């Protein structure tokens, strides 16, 4: 079998309206690279005609197209993990199906890898997202870098290139919840970033709600660092010290001034504040315990219904 130089992994979820445009732009862009390639689509339980369109495209370009059909919706990152396991290229590029990142820029990622980098991330040149997405993304980037020491300028962009060594390392992991760009960064010896184009979504709506983004960042924080737990341990010790000092202050004040009813609401405020911190800390601890619980059950991360591929090369 001839060695495939490039695999393009594309998760698909309810992208019926824009798939044909993706096909029309993706394959010509890859043909112009002048290298052997394959495109691996993963249908993540789409409820529209995405699966049917992928089947049709496979029939048209069976020589370079493979389609993985999930029997349910398991999420973008699990779809990409399945694509990694199916990919055969020496380099792998992940691309969203919504065409917000132009497939014509795949050559930019590969050119950067030619300089000796084993993992190349991307920075969107001009983000066409809502203002709150800009603010939330910037805040989470700063927090993530401080906690995990993982440096990614634009963590929300999945348009990235990976060497085969990085893909093999990722495939050896069996984490139920993970953040693929951060996982790859932890394995990379010489990571880099390039600036790529960013357009408005061609059709449909974003699959990431505010809750999904919060969940994703929780996975990132708790999956790659123990710093959140350590921060709450330190906070607990500091609060204990200040609480002890405050108790001594109140006792001395009572002995000198006598009973004071006016301080009751101040105590209530302090108690509610402590309760809030405690509940948040318990929730954070529960996040780690929940990850352990999901991992030890050893349930399949995803279920593949079928894989459409040509066997002519075997």
UniProtKB/TrEMBL annotation:
Residues 7-168 form the Glycosyltransferase 2-like domain. The keyword Metal-binding does not apply. The chain crosses the membrane at residues 231-252, 264-285. Keywords: Cell membrane, Glycosyltransferase, Lipopolysaccharide biosynthesis, Membrane, Transferase, Transmembrane, Transmembrane helix. The keyword Transmembrane applies. It holds the Pfam family Glycos_transf_2. One of its GO terms (biological process) is lipopolysaccharide biosynthetic process. One of its GO terms (molecular function) is undecaprenyl-phosphate 4-deoxy-4-formamido-L-arabinose transferase activity. CDD domains: DPM1_like_bac. One of its GO terms (cellular component) is plasma membrane. PANTHER family: UNDECAPRENYL-PHOSPHATE 4-DEOXY-4-FORMAMIDO-L-ARABINOSE TRANSFERASE, UNDECAPRENYL-PHOSPHATE 4-DEOXY-4-FORMAMIDO-L-ARABINOSE TRANSFERASE-RELATED. This is Glycosyl transferase family 2.
